[in-house]
Amino acid sequence: MNKRQYMQKSFERQRLLNKLFARPGPFPCVLILDNLKVDFNIGKIIRSAEAFGVQGVDVVGTLFFDPLPAKGCMKRVPWTMTKTFYESYQNHLTKGYTFFAFDTDATSMIHETDFPDKSAFIMGHEGFGFSFKKEDYPQIKWIKIPQIGKVESLNVSVAASIVMYEFARSRNFNPPAESL
Questions:
Q1: N- to C-terminal Cα separation, the chain
Q2: Cβ-contact 110, 131 below 8 angstroms
Q3: Ranges of residues in the chain whose predicted pLDDT is under 70
Q4: Pick from 99, 107, 159, 162: most CB atoms within 10 A?
């Protein structure tokens, strides 16, 4: 069995465990992972989602991914697989989510943004960005994580962890009472 086959088999096992054991976290936010690489970032983001108590993760445009970097968290955090960004967007829009995406040219800073309950954070592919055109989704609010160095962008799992931390911090790390 090669590495890819092993990854896929392990993914299917984790998918079954997720359906049995996963429960939404207490903080009313979700992550939408738009066509990320299958290797390690998705698992790391799910691991951070469990640490920061998010409601769930929607993996868009990916058939499977490596569960190993999640370190067992794939069975605790609800995650879904959606074929297209449009489908994910429509699903979360009907549930009342406000959308945020990241752009180094955005004028709004993450730490100056008031995130409403039901915030959806869209994370794009590190090399190709988002699978959609900005102008097709005018409701998405564009924010950035300020950086001092010359690096073009952060690793997507690091950026996702920062936004989940910032969401929880903005609520003083106190989840809503009804979620506990």
A1: 43
A2: no
A3: 177-180
A4: 159
Query: Facing residues of 144 across strands?
Result: 109
Give the whole-angstrom CA distance, residue 74 versus residue 70.
Answer: 6
Determine the Cα–Cα distance for residues 81 and 90; give it in Å rounded to an integer. 14
> Would you state the pLDDT for residue 179?
60
- Whether 18 and 74 have beta carbons less than 8 Å apart is answered as yes
Amino acid (1-letter code) at residue 133: K
Residue 31 CA to residue 7 CA, distance in Å, equals 22
The full length of the chain comes to 180
Sort strands 141-144 and 108-109 into parallel, antiparallel or unpaired: parallel
Q: What is the pTM of this model?
A: 0.93
What CATH class has 3-171? alpha beta
Name beta bridge partners: 123.
33
- Six-digit token pair at 15? 């998918």
CA distance to 96, 124, 149, 163, per residue, from 91 (Å): 9, 18, 37, 21
Q: What pLDDT is attached to residue 153? A: 80
Q: Model confidence over 56-91: pLDDT tens digits?
A: 999 999 999 888 889 889 899 999 999 999 999 999
Q: Which stretches within the chain are classed as H helix?
A: 3-21, 41-52, 85-94, 156-169
